[in-house]
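[Primary structure, fold]
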Amino acid sequence: MPGVEMKEILVLFYSRDRSLKEMAHLVARGVESVDGIAARLRTVPRVSTVCESTEPDIPEEGAPYVELSDLESCSGLALGSPSYFGNMASSLKYFLDGTTSLWLKGALVDKPAALFTSSGTQHGGQEATLLSMMVPLLHHGMIILGLPYSEAALSSTAGGGTPYGASHVSGIQNDREISSDEKKLCIALGARLASAALKLSS
C-alpha cells in the first residue's frame, strides 16, 4: 500500500566463521517470506583483548555494525551468537550491556524476539546459550518466541534445532554444512518472528 512504511526485523548476529552468518541469512529469508516486513542484517565488532586496539568503523565485508537506533526502530529482533561454553559471545553481550538508554525509556517493551546459535558439538551448550541470550531481552520487556513442535523438522532433526530457537551443529572444525532440517527451522523461526511482529504492531 502506498504511504505504508515497511516494518523491519533486526537480524543481529556475531560470527567468526560462516555458520552463524549463513544462519542469519536463512532467518532473514524467513522474515522476508512474510508480506509487509523486511530484514535488516547487522553485526557487532569483536571485543579486543588489547585495550588500544579497535575495529574499523565499517566492517571490511558483510553486514554493517549495529547501532542503538537499529534496535530502537525495529519491529522485532532475531539475535544470533555462537555457543561459547554454553554462553553467548562476549562481543554480543558487550553490545547488549550498552543498551541501558533503551531500557530506561522502554524502547523494546512488547517487541517480539527470537534466537539462534551454533556449536561445534551435538551437546555443546546450545540451549544454555539460547537461554543466556533471552535474559537481557526479558529485562527489556521483549516477548520471546521459540519454535513449536508443529514444525516437523524439530522432531526429525539429527543435528541442531530446539524449542528455544534455531541451532546448528557445525563440527569441531566448523566443516559441517547446515542440514536441511536446520535450514527449515531457521527459515521457520524468521517467518514466525515476522508474523508475530505484524500482529503485535497492528
Remarks:
- The radius of gyration is 16 Å.
- The chain has one domain: 7-201.
- The mean pLDDT is 92.
- The chain is about 35% helix and 15% strand.
